[in-house]
């Protein structure tokens, strides 16, 4: 009965309060870590409206479509018009010498970059692609009036893409227009997830996608690791806000489900960025079943000035020989978009005339099957 003495009760109370304080600290820490994941804000566009009134070198035609959740989503069709921007002049200067006349077979280029300012953040890419005569379609994943307060890193937002294509077909009167998807960062993960389920996407350029949201979060943290308890609390927080957990967002898994008929270019453009790394690009590239797939990165100090490719080891074969991936090299970010346009013209467009390849039926698995 000594345990129930005043001293014992005070000690028990102290233990309970200490445990509650520790749990509160963990919960607050998990909220601190989770908020940038749930609401990734691009500080470059803080204070700007989501849809610009005008943009140099572009004509912007605004429209709305009904998104995956039934709410309105703001979008624009961007085309080249008026005085050219510096990005457009770079593209025009190259295409004057190095022709890319087959790009006219592409009807729309869907471009997605950020979650919070989807249209504004996609304008730089749109400038480059419209300079080649392409129509670009940009949209805000947050929905009209920011009706979606939290980001799911493409897991739910990717379901807007089929709705957007439906609206483009309705507006143009075209059935099965030739559509290419271009995503960067958040947008690249979204496009990988969309291309896995939307057959009307005929080609994909994925720039700086993370392979897995969980791994990306781990890499951006001081020390590079989370305790199992903190991970559990973060998942609880995400689940309560958006009904998902970190493990649910894995663009690399979506990559493995993309049709082999869809050409995919994987680009590691931003260097030394823990959110999406060269390892992510290689992981996504290796999971792609596509007949036509390529992976590019920036040339480094160890590459010769005239090098166009680099062989990168990605493990070893069963016999011990190194597995190598042939990686294309980009010289600078300013001309990266030009190289992507030539990839579309020279590699993607010819596939439009190729017969579709149907994968052989997968044998039905039984408990005794050996994979």
Structure in words:
By secondary structure, the protein is an alpha/beta fold. The chain has a single domain (27-36, 50-353), classed as Rossmann fold (3-Layer(aba) Sandwich), CATH 3.40.50. 36% of the residues lie in helices and 18% in strands. It contains ten helices and ten strands. It has helices at residues 6-38, 86-97, 118-130, 160-172, 186-195, 213-220, 228-242, 251-255, 278-287, 336-348, and strands at 58-66, 72-80, 108-112, 136-139, 179-184, 201-207, 264-268, 293-298, 309-316, 322-330. The chain has a ten-stranded mixed β-sheet with strand order 1-2-4-3-5-6-7-8-10-9, sandwiched between helices. α3 (118-130) links the parallel β3 and β4. The longest helix is centred in the N-terminal third of the chain and has 33 residues, at 6-38. It is globular, with a radius of gyration of 24 Å. The N and C termini lie far apart (62 Å).
């Amino acid at each position: 009965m000594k345990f129930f003495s005043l001293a014992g009760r005070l000690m028990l109370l102290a233990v309970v309060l200490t445990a509650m304080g520790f749990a509160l600290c963990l919960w607050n820490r998990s909220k601190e870590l989770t908020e940038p994941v749930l609401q990734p804000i691009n500080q470059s566009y803080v204070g700007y409206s989501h849809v610009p009134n005008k943009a140099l070198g572009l004509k912007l035609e605004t429209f709305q479509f009904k998104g995956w959740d039934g709410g309105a989503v703001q979008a624009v069709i961007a085309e080249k018009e008026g005085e050219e921007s510096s990005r457009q002049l770079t593209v025009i200067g190259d295409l004057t010498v190095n022709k890319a006349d087959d790009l006219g077979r592409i009807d729309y280029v869907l471009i997605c970059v950020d979650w919070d300012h989807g249209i504004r953040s996609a304008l730089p890419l749109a400038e480059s692609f419209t300079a080649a005569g392409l129509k670009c379609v940009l949209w805000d994943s947050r929905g009209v009036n920011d009706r979606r307060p939290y980001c799911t890193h493409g897991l739910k937002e990717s379901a807007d893409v089929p709705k957007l294509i439906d609206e483009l077909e309705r507006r143009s009167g075209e059935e099965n227009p030739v559509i290419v998807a271009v995503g960067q960062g958040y947008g690249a993960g979204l496009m990988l997830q969309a291309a896995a389920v939307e057959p009307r996407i005929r080609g994909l350029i994925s720039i700086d996608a993370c392979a897995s949201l969980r791994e990306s979060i781990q890499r951006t943290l001081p020390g590079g690791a989370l305790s199992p308890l903190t991970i559990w609390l973060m998942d609880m927080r995400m689940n309560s806000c958006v009904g998902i957990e970190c493990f649910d967002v894995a663009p690399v898994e979506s990559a493995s489900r993309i049709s082999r008929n869809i050409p995919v270019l994987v680009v590691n453009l931003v260097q030394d960025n823990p959110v999406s790394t060269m390892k992510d690009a290689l992981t996504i590239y290796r999971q792609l079943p596509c007949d036509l797939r390529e992976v590019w990165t920036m040339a480094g100090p160890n590459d010769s000035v005239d090098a166009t490719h680099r062989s990168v080891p990605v493990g070893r074969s069963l016999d011990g020989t190194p597995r190598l991936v042939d990686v294309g090299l980009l010289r600078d970010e300013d001309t990266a978009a030009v190289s992507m346009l030539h990839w579309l013209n020279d590699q993607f467009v010819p596939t439009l005339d190729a017969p579709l390849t149907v994968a052989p039926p997968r044998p039905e698995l039984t408990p005794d099957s050996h994979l």
